[in-house]
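Predict the holo structure. Ligand: adenosine-5'-triphosphate.
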Amino acid sequence: MPSTAATERSPAVRTLLRLWPHLRPVRARWFSAAVVAVLASLTSLVIPLVLKWLVDGPIADGDTAGVWLGALWVLLLGLAEALLFGLRRWLVARPLSSVEADMREALYRRLQRLPIAFHDRWPSGQLLSRATTDLMIIRMFLAFPLTFLLVNGVTILAGVIVMLSMDRSLGLLVLIPVIPVIVVCTVFEKRFAEASRTAQDQVGDVTTLVEESVLGIRVIKGFGRHRSQARAFRELTHRLRGTELRKARLLGGIMAVIVVLPELAIGTCLVLGTVRVADGTLSAGTLVAFLSTALALHWPVISIGFLLAMSQEAATATARYFEVMDTEPESAADDRPATAASQALPASPASPATSASPVSRATAKAPTAVKEGGLRLEGVRFRYPDAPADAPPVLDGVDLHVRPGESLALVGTTGSGKTTLTALIPRLHEITEGRITLDGVDITAMPREELRARVAVAFEDPTLFSATVGENVLMGAADRDERTDPEVLGRALGVAQAGFVHALPQGVDTQVGEQGLSLSGGQRQRLALARAVVGSPDFLVLDDPLSALDVHTEAAVEAALREVLADTTALIVAHRPSTVLLADRVALLSGGRIAAVGDHHELLRTNAEYAWLMSGAPLEPEEARR
Ligand SMILES: Nc1ncnc2c1ncn2[C@@H]1O[C@H](COP(=O)(O)OP(=O)(O)OP(=O)(O)O)[C@@H](O)[C@H]1O
């Protein structure tokens, strides 16, 4: 995750203004609700005026009917205030929950479109906390502080005018705490912003740890690490608790100032007012009304503390939300224009005839301007964006041609960059230099959607989703009709030798993945393979797809795959000779380049590193390369 300390802090108001486009669709309702809330709040200010009339009029005159009338007015005004506040809540509840839902949906859509490099950098818990806690904080801000900072502001202003009009000197006295309160609020805003950012980032860290512990529960239990995990969790939660306590202390400090200073001013007014009533320079009704107005302003004033705190938290949540939303998605600006050469090349259909050539005398260097189709990598260099500056690129000038309909195995030592190379073809990462073409067309010149419909991938780690077996496999189908076709599903399961699914409790309708039945590593791999082949893709990229299978199942899968691969151009990462034999040719990746390409048996004879890799002979790769 990018350092939060480095994140520039912009003023809370400017940050919160970024919510406006999301609030715009519900602005009519929100403004109506705000007006209703202002009316409700002003209604409460009328009650002291009725009290003044009551005390100076019917009570002073002993008019019982008048007292009853006054009491009735107070009751009706109280009722009106309650009803108006109820109406406000009704007006905003539904629209604001839709604002939250829309923002969450937009965040999810953005996460789907962000490049893998982004997801490599950001811990999932930080993203999860933005999609949950932060959005909830934003909704609460739109519902309460945003409305009530306005409502309370208007109410305080109206109340002060009423009090000044009742008695100027008492009114000015009650205003004295305003200046120290403003100073304290300014200091508070700055300090609380820092604490709030720290707390929300720490919530993200806690979420990440919980998520990792749940996903890695087998490793934790297997290595007996539950105590150290619990310790790590306790440390994180203690740190979060410390930050929350700091927030509470800051809030406590501002509340003390906001509560005590106005109370002192009101107390002083009470003493001075009583003396003046005794002197006869102030009517009892005016004093009662003045003090009732001051008390009616009590809540609007003291609520400013936590409304500011909530607003600050919302500003932090908004900044965190837009850190993700402001990241450039992969499909927009980064589609590089195709080079003139690649645009000039005609897209030639995959030709099974050419692919059938069993042994290829390929060289490590492919010519750069060949018009045949298939998959071609030319001078491909790649360095991970977050790799240390002095680290050599993972791929450093890869030239490789997989002919149309051919299957080519890619071998290399662990960490040589095989998985990295496979990820470049569907553009999960962007190459640093060089180019990759499919049937002569630069992959950066075609829309990603089209590219990914043409290239199917089965990764080393066969992730399954919380869905049925059928849904997991059919998500690989490019065609909408195919996604519901049981025949297509049956064929793919057949190729991947995944007949075991029929023995599951509900067959292909059995729920698997996180929320469903747990499958073995080999079963998962076969479903991932079925997902890759289900759409009969033009290009198939398989990252060691059979590593978890026993030799008999592997042989059966290979036999079925041979039929599929006859029409498909395939790049297959392989570690075992049995997987290599599935391919027409094999390429050796070494030192960031393709060191040799050829037939398995031929390379066994002619390339010492390849022989070492395949046989496990006691020869070090460095030595072999020499
Ligand atoms: N997201 C990443 N950020 C930075 N470096 C990475 C990242 N992923 C992989 N690497 C580095 O790139 C190099 C190549 O990794 P890669 O996974 O492509 O190797 P591999 O040949 O597939 O290995 P294996 O056979 O073990 O699967 C390794 O040194 C690895 O540490």
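The pocket of adenosine-5'-triphosphate is lined by residues 120, 384, 386-387, 394, 412, 414-420 (CB under 6 Å). The radius of gyration is 35 Å.
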